[in-house]
Design a protein that fits this description.
It is found in: Nucleus, Nucleolus. The protein has an eight-stranded mixed β-sheet with strand order 10-11-9-8-12-13-15-14, with helices on both faces. The chain has a three-stranded antiparallel β-sheet with strand order 1-3-2. The protein contains 21 helices and 27 strands. By secondary structure, the chain is of the alpha+beta class. Helix 3 crosses helix 4, helix 6 runs parallel beside helix 7 and helix 17 packs antiparallel against helix 18. Among the domains are: 98 residues, no CATH class; 58 residues, Phenylalanyl-tRNA Synthetase, Chain B, domain 1, CATH 3.30.56.70. Strand 4 and strand 5 form a beta hairpin.
Amino acid sequence: DGMVVSEKVKSNDIDVKIPKSELEGEEKGAEEEHPRESDSTILDVSSDYPRDKHISIQRHLADLEKLADLREDEKKPCPLCPEEKFKACYSHKLHRHLQNLHWKVSVEFEGYRMCICHLSCRPVKPNLVGDQTLSKMGAHYHCIICSATIVRRTDMIGHINRHVNKGETESRFITVRAPKSSYKVVKESATDVQVLPNHSTPQKTDSYFNPKMKLNRQLIFCALAVLAGERKPIECLDAFGATGIMGLQWAKHLRSSVKVTINDCNENSVTMIKENCHLNKMKVKLNIREKDNDETVGNGEENSDTIEVTKMDANVVMHLRSFDFIHLDPFGSSVNYLDSAFRNVRNLGIVSVTSTDISSLYAKAQHVALRHYGCNIVRTEYYKELAARTVIAAVTRAAARCNKGIEVLLAVALEHFVLVVVRVLRGPTPADDSAKKIRYLIHCQWCEERVFQKEGNMVEENPYQQLPCDCYGSMPGKTAVLLGPLWSGALFNTGFLRRMLLEAVQYGLDEAQSLLKTLICEAECTTPKHFSTHSPGDENKQEECGVYIRTPNTSAESYLVHGKRKSEEVLRSTAKRQRPEHSAEHPPFYYNIHRHSIKGMNMPKLNKFLNYLSEAGYRVSRTHFDPMGVRTNAPLVQFKTVLMKYSTPTYVGAQAEGPVHLPGGIHVGEEVPAATVIKVQEGELAQDDKAGVATAVFTQSYPTHCAAD
């Protein structure tokens, strides 16, 4: 019973008594009203629609006075107060009472005033003294939309705002979508979508649209465009449509190459997706029954401008249908949908996962990461790459349960999301190979050196020996923690990224182009000045996941057909080439140059420092995870040695600009002893053993004394 209105209010008769049973039912309905406020839809519980508004809801103060029937020669009671609270009085006193105690504290909405009501619509619980029950009736407001009773004025304002955000602005107990005039049309990549005014607030709107995720949508579109070039047509699924912006972009730009299915479990979202399809001149295909699935999937006579819109749970639609491309972008973590995604995805298809639960992935809520991903993580300097490897590990385990392996094509972790794109390799052998790449990480909490634990199940006597640093021997207590399990393989596929860049250039996706160039340099572990749009190898021999990639010089026998290879011989021959060369993989993780800076010294420019490391014989590149991060295969000690050599003193006049000259016994690439003290002209450089980091401190005022930390 959702409506809390007494018989006294319905008849506008003050003297009508309310039966006790009705009061108990109304109190129960009022208590049940609050948890319903968070629901996305409000059920219709009334047969006679529309209903009259409550007497406390009026447009003008004069309308409220008419209810009291003010007369100068007669005493009249207040229509909104019981006689126990406010006794009958003459018109001048009743006028002041209505104006000050009811009208001035009202809540306004679309020309109506919801005045405070003291009637027995919402009785309070009885006190210890039963006689005081009638004298303390609960003051409350009546909602003009759903007739709920709210006690506080601030809560009433928030309650009305939630109705407005959901588009419920006209009637009681019935979900009414917002009028067309309140819609806002947003354009992105030549695609128009209608959104509600609160489109940027998740869980409070049926049309969640985040403009900050534009780069995410561009990357996913490029990945789909690359897959569409391998086999046509491909069936792709946007499991969480919201406004349908992503699926509309796929269908509008790729046309006949894709068959798009947009799904959402919310009825209002499905209605808005259909309207957005018509807005972009796309035809909407009605929801297909399960028994007709096979016939529809094989039908090749469909219009290329047709989009299928379904209203189902994401797990259900992925269990019922097979797809070549699946994109998961739920609110928060996507671990609840991974098993369904890999159950029916076709061989050599692509699954892209966008995770927005960054509070747990970025180690701000470590207990949530352990609960969702089964992974122990802490806050580190490389926390973004740690988040990406955590998601990939969960994806790998879900794929392995379905006897499928993965190859990571792309892993991006930015401020608002973590995006992982993987290719699916069917079979137990790829599943076993992928599962073996899930390993634990040993992380030193003093110097932040890190290394993946060695393969094997044998217990090691001293696992600290695997770390390159000597913090365990020089620092008291336990210095390292075990993180994971994490994905230890590569995060990027260079050939796939290059083809994504070509698609981004073709469709004019400027934001994705700059990021993809950075990712290609990061995948090849090279500096931007060595970047080239052409692959260093022969183009007609590009290989990915054991499958030849279609290039202008590739024979037609290596092309992919819809869901299958042309012959079993080709499949067997390519399976032998499935293992990528580990020597070409980029180094795992990166170092932040500011985190390891030397006290009292000015660091070199980042690009110059990259050249210095490269000249020292190490692989080096920048990383998109951190603008000041350096991805290199150099150990941390060598990293700091090069940084120390090319740093300059902070104090002006103490030393001319230029690199710090190390003594003859120490060279770049050698480990610096902990007790080494380097003299520089008038000052000295002292090793700072705090946190296991060798830092140099320049002292100008004390030429004969070594500065101590």
